[in-house]
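ok trying again, last paste got cut off:
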Amino acid sequence: MATKTSYEHIVLNEKNIPVISSTRMRVIDIVMSQTAYGWSSEELQFQFPNFTLGEIHSALAYYWDHKEELDKDIENRLIEVDNFHK
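nice, full thing came through this time. structure:
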C-alpha cells in the first residue's frame, strides 16, 4: 500500500521508497537517468513518455528536497551492484 507524500505525483511504496504514483518508477531511477545522460526535464519526459512533465518535475523536486537520503540510497545500490560483479 502506498503512502502519500506532500508531492502531488510521488508516493512511498510498501518498502518506503519514493515512486511516481500508480507506477513502480522510483524517483532515483529518474535522477540516475538524468545524471547518467545529462537529460533535461523535457528529455526525461520524451524518454519516459508514459509520464507527464508534472510527474517528472515532482520526482526531481522530491529528490532535491531529500538529496542526502536518496544519494545515500543510490550509493548503496551501486556498491551492491559492484559487489555482485566481483
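cool. The longest strand covers residues 10-12. The helical segments are 27-37, 41-47, 53-65, 67-84.
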